[in-house]
Amino acid sequence: QRVNNFPPGPPALPILGNLLQLSLSNPLKDFERMKNHYGDVYSIFIGHRPAVILNGLKAIKEAIITKGSDYAGRPQDLFVNAIFQGKGVILADYGTNWKEHRRFALITLRNFGMGKKSMEDRIHEEIQYILKTLENSIGTTISPQTLFHNATSNIISQVLFNTRFEYNDDIITVIIRCITEITKYANGAWATLYDYLPMIQNLPLPFREAFKSHKFLNAISTHITFISSMVTEHMRNRIPGEPKDLLDCYLDELEQRGADSSFSHERLIGFAIDLYGAGTDTTSNTLLTGFLYLMCYPDIQERCQQEIDTMLDGKRCASFEDRHNMPYVQAMIHEVQRIANIVPLSIFHSTRKDTELMGYSIPRGTMIIENLTSVLNEEGEWKFPHDFNPENFLNEQGEFVKPEAFMPFSAGPRMCLGEGLARMELFLIMVTLLRKYKFIWPEDAGKPDLTLVYGITMTTQPYRMRSKLKAKIAKTLHYYAM
Ligand code: HEM
């Protein structure tokens, strides 16, 4: 039963709630259908538990920005909580642990060079490996999935562990596969069933055994083992007071704070798992969507390249500051992020007290699902809500403008804390690659399929791409080989 003045929604069945009205493999269309029927704020029942779905800029803004503190909790009784046990920052509920770890992450990432030269250097170093891989693929086609996942994983790995891995390294290949599986399984059919019907956790064998040996749990335990080994290695080899990476900084902080803070070795593992996973899968999937669209829209690719060539003329490499002189490229990258819709339902929030939204009453502890998809393609907020068109981010003078409805990183107190790093990576990687290569959809690859695959993060269908040295670059190759 919906309590008085609770947002409306479809009638729910006993035990199952609205389970039968949602596709377990991709509920995005069902959410949109319900929005058209019940309005921007509606509710569904996940088993016996109510959840409120927020759609559109107005409702989402009121909740997570205007009343941000009321909506900044995280549900603590989902499948993913049972697995990760609230040790990191992403799933941690509002409170001292989350606040201290979030603050520490933001400060440390900034000190490691967010917006500063050193982070740019690290990203440029990794770009050299991407360029080498592309160089070796000339005359043939490559699958960019592994390439971009390896590159973004190495960038965050440098920040966390001061380590990078070769692209054919066996360990990292497994770890990246685990991360991509986790983001698909964590809100896939199995996890959703567990959340809808928590009683399945207590069913007798062999069901539980089958569940325990499921690929998802294997992926998580491999990932945890990898991060734990990194932490152990840092504890053994670090020089106190001389941090080389974020793990060292954390261990220094732990020593200074002593036993009664929220910092601990165990929490460090959860924290590093979160940053590593969130830092890898999101940025790489955005790049994958970006290059797929640039191949499908060669005119947009070419216009970006013209701007890049003009603005970087005589410069050895791009710097993040250059974005201010490249309105079209900026617009293209933001448009890629809008279309890529990387985290379509954000990470679920929860209310911290009884509150209100658009006239409805929302009790404390209600699960809140921010439907970011509904804002990123909201009619009335975009010039071309359903097309890929960088004009969505350009004003009549051709200047770059960022509409309020651009929120792929969400907003408010729980907003993505890796935004700065992600934006720098996207800009430097896309600009450097587009400066040197033209990307072409292989003639024998059939028609490109732009349908994205649903998960906590959206991914493209696997595809192959052909890269060709740009004519101007081909002539001056020696310059870049320096
Ligand atoms: C294009 C890239 C990225 C996108 C689209 C993205 C998007 C998001 C979104 C939508 C959230 C949920 C915010 C909320 O609950 O309201 C989030 C949270 C988070 N992201 Fe990102 N992210 C990206 C890159 C990164 C990177 C590179 C890192 C690591 C440095 C990172 C670390 C995190 C963390 C730790 C949280 C949890 C914040 C909290 O609960 O306080 N993300 N991100």
Automatic annotation (TrEMBL):
Subcellular location: Membrane
Cofactor(s) named in the record: heme
Keyword set includes Signal: yes
Highest taxon listed in the record's lineage: Eukaryota
GO cellular component terms, A-Z: cytoplasm; membrane
Alphabetical keyword list: Heme, Iron, Membrane, Metal-binding, Monooxygenase, Oxidoreductase, Signal
A GO biological-process term: xenobiotic metabolic process
GO MF annotation terms: heme binding; iron ion binding; oxidoreductase activity, acting on paired donors, with incorporation or reduction of molecular oxygen, reduced flavin or flavoprotein as one donor, and incorporation of one atom of oxygen
InterPro entries, sorted: Cyt_P450, Cyt_P450_CS, Cyt_P450_E_grp-I, Cyt_P450_sf, Cytochrome_P450_fam2
Binding-site list for heme: C416
UniProt key word Signal: yes
Name of one Pfam family that matches: p450
Chief location category: membrane
Family, as annotated: Belongs to the cytochrome P450 family.
Name of the featured protein: Cytochrome P450 2D3-like
